[in-house]
């Protein structure tokens, strides 16, 4: 696909360090052509037109400037088993599991890859050698795009400048939505030699011509896929996948994995958290961050439309990632490093997230959703119960005529919309503030069908860090896991830790020991409790989640009492200042001794097996204290 007939081949505007990097990678990857992106409308138009002409995307006739891309069915989610952090010293990144490392049996994976449930590691030099082979000539017949971009607002001391080289025009169009992409970003470099620029190299891994049976509109190389990170070199190298978090290097790779290491070294926090502003009926505003595992409703919460308590207003700053720094007054301030939403489509409807639904009918790239014969998008849970047997007919994400009797979804469960943040109608006025917004509450959460109450408050910072460390949640479709098993997902960061989880905990704990910080209070929520008899949800969720945020808000203003339980402070429905705005099934606030003793056992096993000697003593103490408190009831 020849996209840029008159490509910008001039490297003169790039910092010397990046010019050298681009030249080196051109030599290695041997693209037919290269183009330095400027992020302009004109460039984007040309790219989208060319992709449409080549069948890489289809235009959605019903909307303005919206497109669908459908993938090779083998490339539909993040691949955690092939995502690796590379350093010299393994223990900097992972701990040795007590049961040892699994033997790598996949012949396409490096034998010396060390895989653990908390991330994978390999030696830098060994990995670079393997990547050198994979990237040698990998862009033949394709254009290499040089994408200058920035994570975080312009003029922010907290933003990071980066460049991604990619042979995927889909990646360019998506990065333009998800990041601040412009050659102007180089004015924001913070070092004189440009060593702070994060370098990213991405290839779909299919040089042309090819005799491999490939999907021409979604080239990828699943057998050879590797998503690698080199924190010591400020570098990301991603091969073989064109999908979301694997290929849009600014998101998970930079903002979380490289980001968390930068954060540890520089004294801040890079977290898998939404950022929201909440104004109460009295007009007082507070900002919160919330961490939930992938596909557990962060986007919906970030855009919540309050139901049940009149007078509340929610405004959105981000739906996935927060970079947080303590300012000179000791307040924790958060920026959203991203510039768009890469949201899970299924389940998004007028009733679950009207704000998201309103913002995606212009300038949006959809991936793996279904399309109706009317030129609209369609997915499971979008509020329309089309069966495909009657008009409108439906083209599934597999590009086949779909009907309900096929017994499979029309849209892939991990299908996505990719939309600029500026189209969100409830964008917070401070969304682009270089200094970020002051955070007063940190909310952790997971998808737990039993045992974990609707909401509880931690006793203090250290206990809150323990609550984050012990998070568990049902698996979702955002990665390659199958079924609904309850997985440990500490801080919702399990797939995104850039360094050893034990040191990550120590880093979080360290803030509790510093003087002069106004530490936010820490909460845990669970919208997903089910009635064991009917299996129905016990909590209405969505807009009514404001009733829980209201309780948290009033806790922060000393207007809500709480009942002390072994796991933390829960709303006291025996008083008038518990959860307001409607009925609360008592089962939502129960704390069962038996359930939580089992939970302690599971945590203990998980920590012993996966963190062992790297587990901070304070976390062990918190676990022991929880057990003791439980045994006393
Ligand atoms: C995401 C994820 O895409 O967490 O945000 O998987
Ligand atoms: Mn996410």
TrEMBL record:
Enzyme class at the top of the EC tree: lyase
Which UniProt key words apply to this protein?
A: Decarboxylase, GTP-binding, Lyase, Manganese, Metal-binding, Nucleotide-binding
Single annotated GO MF? phosphoenolpyruvate carboxykinase (GTP) activity
Give the superkingdom in one word: Eukaryota
Domain Phosphoenolpyruvate carboxykinase C-terminal P-loop as annotated: residue spans: 268-629
InterPro entries assigned to the protein according to its UniProt record, in alphabetical order = PEP_carboxykin_GTP_CS (IPR018091), PEP_carboxykinase_C (IPR013035), PEP_carboxykinase_GTP (IPR008209), PEP_carboxykinase_GTP_C (IPR035077), PEP_carboxykinase_GTP_N (IPR035078), PEP_carboxykinase_N (IPR008210)
EC annotation from Swiss-Prot or TrEMBL: 4.1.1.32
A Pfam family per the record? PEPCK_GTP
Asked whether the UniProt record includes Heme among its keywords, one would answer no
Asked whether the UniProt record includes Lipid metabolism among its keywords, one would answer no
Q: Which residues form the Phosphoenolpyruvate carboxykinase GTP-utilising N-terminal domain?
A: 20-264
From the UniProt record, give one GO term of the biological process aspect.
cellular response to glucose stimulus
An annotated GO cellular component of this protein is: cytosol
Q: What cofactor is needed?
A: Mn(2+)
Known PANTHER family for this protein?
PHOSPHOENOLPYRUVATE CARBOXYKINASE, PHOSPHOENOLPYRUVATE CARBOXYKINASE [GTP]-RELATED
Spell out the family assignment given in the record's similarity comment: Belongs to the phosphoenolpyruvate carboxykinase [GTP] family.
Q: HAMAP family from the xrefs?
A: PEPCK_GTP (MF_00452)
Q: How does it assemble?
A: Monomer.
User: What's the protein here called?
Assistant: phosphoenolpyruvate carboxykinase (GTP)
Source organism per UniProt: Adineta ricciae (Rotifer)
């Amino acid at each position: 696909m020849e996209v840029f007939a008159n490509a910008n081949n001039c490297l003169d505007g790039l910092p010397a360090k990046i010019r050298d990097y681009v030249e080196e990678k051109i030599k290695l990857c041997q693209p037919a052509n290269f183009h330095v992106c400027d992020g302009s409308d004109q460039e984007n138009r040309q790219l989208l037109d060319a992709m449409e002409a080549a069948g890489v995307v289809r235009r959605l006739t019903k909307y303005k400037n919206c497109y669908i891309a459908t993938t090779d069915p083998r490339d539909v989610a993040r691949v955690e088993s092939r995502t690796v952090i590379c350093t010299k010293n393994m223990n900097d990144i992972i701990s040795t599991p007590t049961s040892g490392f699994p033997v790598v049996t996949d012949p396409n994976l490096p034998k010396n890859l060390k895989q653990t449930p908390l991330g994978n590691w390999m030696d830098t030099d060994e990995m670079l050698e393997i990547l050198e082979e994979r990237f040698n000539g990998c862009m033949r017949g394709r254009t290499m795009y040089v994408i200058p971009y920035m994570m975080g607002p312009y003029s922010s001391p907290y933003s990071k400048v980066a460049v991604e080289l990619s042979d995927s025009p889909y990646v360019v169009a998506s990065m333009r939505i998800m990041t601040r992409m412009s050659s102007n970003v180089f004015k924001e470099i913070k070092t004189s030699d440009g060593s702070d620029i994060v370098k990213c190299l991405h290839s779909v891994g299919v040089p042309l011509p090819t005799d491999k049976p490939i999907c021409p509109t979604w080239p990828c190389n699943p057998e050879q896929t590797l998503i690698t990170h080199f924190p010591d070199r400020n570098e990301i190298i991603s091969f073989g996948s064109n999908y979301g978090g694997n290929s849009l290097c600014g998101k998970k790779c930079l903002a979380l994995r490289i980001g968390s290491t930068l954060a540890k070294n520089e004294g801040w926090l890079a977290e898998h958290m939404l950022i929201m502003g909440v104004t109460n009926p009295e007009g007082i505003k507070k900002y919160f961050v919330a961490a939930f595992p992938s596909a557990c409703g962060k986007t919906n919460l970030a855009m919540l439309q309050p139901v049940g308590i009149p007078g509340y207003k929610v405004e959105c700053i981000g739906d996935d990632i927060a970079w947080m720094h303590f300012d000179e007054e000791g307040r924790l301030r958060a920026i959203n490093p991203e510039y768009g939403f890469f949201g899970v489509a299924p389940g998004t409807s007028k009733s679950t997230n009207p704000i998201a639904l309103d913002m995606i009918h212009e300038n949006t790239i959809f991936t793996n959703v279904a399309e109706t014969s009317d030129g609209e998008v369609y997915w499971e849970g979008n509020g329309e119960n089309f069966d495909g047997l009657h008009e409108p007919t439906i083209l599934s994400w597999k590009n086949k005529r779909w009907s309900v009797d096929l017994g499979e979804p029309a849209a892939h469960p991990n299908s996505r919309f990719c939309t600029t943040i500026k189209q969100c109608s409830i964008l917070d006025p401070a969304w682009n503030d270089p200094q970020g917004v002051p955070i007063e509450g940190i909310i952790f959460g997971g998808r737990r069908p039993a045992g974990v109450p609707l909401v509880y408050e931690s006793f203090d910072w250290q206990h809150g860090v323990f609550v984050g460390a012990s998070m568990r949640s049902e698996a979702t479709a955002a990665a390659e896991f199958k079924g609904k098993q309850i997985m440990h997902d500490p801080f919702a960061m399990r797939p995104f830790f850039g360094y050893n989880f034990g040191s990550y905990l120590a880093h979080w704990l360290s803030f509790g020991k510093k003087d002069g910080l106004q530490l936010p209070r820490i909460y845990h929520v669970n919208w997903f409790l089910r009635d064991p008899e009917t299996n129905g949800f016990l909590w209405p969720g969505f807009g009514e989640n404001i009733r829980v945020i209201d309780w948290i808000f009033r806790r922060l203003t000393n207007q809500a009492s709480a009942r002390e339980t072994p796991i933390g402070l829960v709303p006291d429905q025996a008083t008038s200042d518990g959860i307001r705005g409607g009925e609360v099934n008592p089962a939502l606030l129960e704390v069962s001794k038996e359930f939580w003793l089992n939970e302690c056992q599971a945590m203990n096993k998980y920590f012993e097996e996966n963190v062992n000697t790297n587990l901070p003593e304070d976390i062990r103490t918190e676990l022991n204290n929880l057990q003791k408190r439980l045994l006393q009831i």
